[in-house]
Amino acid sequence: MLALAGGYLIVAKGTVTSVRSGKGSLSQHPERETLKLPLKDPRIVIFKSKRQLELYSGGAVVRTYRVGLGLNPVDDKQKEGDRATPEGEFYIFTKNPKSAYYLSLGISYPNIEDAERGLREGLITRAQHDQIVNSIKKKIAPPQYTALGGLIYIHGNGAASDWTWGCIALENEDIKELYGSVERGTPVTVKP
What we know:
The structure is a single chain. With 192 residues, the chain is of the alpha+beta class. Helices cover 17% and strands 31% of the residues. It is built from three helices and twelve strands, in the order E-E-E-E-E-E-E-E-E-H-H-E-E-H-E. The chain has helices at 112-120, 126-138, 172-181; strands at 3-5, 8-12, 15-19, 26-30, 43-47, 52-57, 60-66, 88-96, 104-107, 153-155, 168-169, 187-191. The chain has an eight-stranded mixed beta sheet. Strand 1 and strand 2 form a beta hairpin. Helix 1 (112-120) runs antiparallel to helix 2.
């Protein structure tokens, strides 16, 4: 069955495809129930190789979203400008309702492991290392402007391809739902 209704193309029973103007791309979403908020012990797990973000509540997956990654999507982020998406354990340190990319959730890159590697490789100073470690221990924003890079966000503006400088991109309707479902401090795991 094909029908156009209110900006949505009904492809088959149970599937709604939104038609996005401007980019001409289609984003498929099965009809889904509204998330039951607040989530219990929410966490986010991103699988880079699958281009998926899973949202958990009470240990169970409650949503799976398609994501776009950095222009260097396979490698783990090593330094500023490598366009890789970092891997590891992070948390949401900020929520930005006025993002240039619709809405955004800042993730706590660089983490302690990144700081240790950066110090070993001479990318950052001992003072920068200590600032990162202290920030992570306090669950606040780590320094964002070191040679390790920073400003890694989960944001909107489309998940059809890998196009960011290291961020995780979702469709706007998906980041809107995710943004409204999680708070600062929510754990984020990024896996290869």
